Amino acid sequence: MGVNGITSGMAADYVASAKTALNTKADSAEKSSASANQGVVYEPSQQAKESDTSKTSDYSAAIKKMKLEQASKNQQLEQLVTQMLGKQAGKFTTLADMFKNMEVDEETRAQAEKDISEDGYWGVEQTSDRLVDMAKALSGGDPTKADELMSAIQKGYDQATKAWGDKLPDICQKTIDAANDKLTKWRDGLDVAAVEA
Fold first, then answer.
1. What is the pTM of this model?
2. What's the half-sphere exposure (Cβ side, CA atoms, 13 Å) at 165?
């Protein structure tokens, strides 16, 4: 056998194996292309369908649970604040006592007097206006709820008095009176600002 016989035999084997490899790659690419066009199909098992509890059907129970958790967290926060204030102001029995003999520099005193003056941010007019605006917003603009809102404002005032531990400063009662007067006028249709708006 000559060199030509060996090389021609090798060449024939090489061509045959190359054709086989090309055919295999083409078949693989064709199958891959077909599966790529089909996409992935998810078929959940029967067990997954039966045990799917991610959807809530009883919203009232979920809301009740959230309210209970919130109440618990509020109570924890109140206890924490009470403990912290108790440690810091242990020698005082009420908030009023804590502020009775407080020394204030002149600049702070002047700013406070300006803030609670007749036209100040914390004055009777502006503060009662904010109370009334909030009350109207909470009622959805319904003047028939004015009495209920006035009652709620009085309840808040009573709670503040209790927390303070003594009679609140006169400006507080004047603010409540002004807010109640404005809400009464709103309820009775005498509120000029509401009519113009």
1. 0.50
2. 9
Q: Residues 165, 94: contact at Cβ < 8 Å?
A: yes
19-69 pLDDT per residue, tens: 555 555 555 555 555 555 555 666 666 655 554 544 545 667 777 877 888
Q: Report the amino acid identity of residue 134.
A: M
Left (φ > 0), alpha (ψ -120 to 50) or beta: where does 45 sit? beta
Residue 101 tokens read as 């003999």
Q: Using an 8 Å Cβ cutoff, are 4 and 11 in contact? A: no
- Relative orientation angle of helices 170-187 and 146-164, to the nearest 10 degrees: 170
Alpha carbons 8 and 61: distance in angstroms, whole number: 85
